[in-house]
Design a protein that fits this description.
The chain has two helices and no strands. It is an all-alpha fold. The protein has a domain at 10-37. The protein has helices spanning 11-23, 28-37. The model has no long low-confidence stretch (mean pLDDT 83). The radius of gyration is 12 Å and the shape is globular. 2% of the residues are buried.
Length: 53
Amino acid sequence: MAPRSLSWVNTPVLQRAIERYEQGLMPRSMQLWLQQLLELEQPVKGPLRPPHC
């Protein structure tokens, strides 16, 4: 397994990125960044957040 580097992401930035990801409004490079950051195995078609968020 490759060593992981720590990343710090501002919470509002991450929330906005997740919103845009769910809406399909992100460029491919940003989608890949978010998938890697959240350790998603494949693109997600549904919401990433619980309904109450």
